Amino acid sequence: MPYILVQVTDEGVTHEQKAKIIAGATDLMVEVLGKDPDETFVVIDEVNTDNWGRGGEMVTLRRQRQAAARRKP
Predict the structure, then answer these.
(1) Please, what's the b/e burial string for 34-43 (b: 16 or more CB within 10 A of its CB; e: otherwise)?
(2) Within 10 A of 65 (CB to CB), how many other CB atoms are there?
(3) Are 37 and 1 in contact (CB under 8 A)?
(4) What is the pLDDT of residues 7-30, one digit of tens each?
(5) Span 25-66, pLDDT tens digits
(6) Which residue is catalytic, options 1, 2, 3, 69?
(7) Which of 10, 15, 20, 25 has the fewest CB atoms lying closer than 10 Å?
(8) Residue 73 pLDDT class (50, 70, 90 cuts)
(9) Quick check: is 37 catalytic?
(10) Domain of 36: which CATH number?
């Protein structure tokens, strides 16, 4: 019984995109491991960018800094 956890930032992932992620992850378990799709669980965890870090920096702050840098001539 596979349990697949997909974590993404909460920045506008659409219903349709989530449906494709769930279907694709399930199909992969069926194709690669021969798992029963009815026994394959896929959970999408949307994480606020304040709770996600990269390079020692909160993603929210990193994105703000990058946006400000792009606005400078």
Answers:
(1) eeeeeebebe
(2) 11
(3) no
(4) 999 999 999 999 999 999 999 999
(5) 999 999 999 999 999 999 999 999 999 999 999 999 999 999
(6) 2
(7) 15
(8) confident
(9) no
(10) 3.30.429.10
When computed from its CA atoms, the radius of gyration of the chain, rounded to whole angstroms, is 17
Yes or no: say if 49 and 59 are a contact pair by the CB < 8 Å rule.
yes
35: CB partners within 8 A, 6+ apart: 1, 2, 29
Q: What is the dihedral of CA 55, 57, 60, 63, to 10 degrees?
A: -50
State the total domains in the chain: 1
Residue 13 contacts residue 47 (beta carbons within 8 Å): no
Domain that includes residue 9, residue range = 3-71
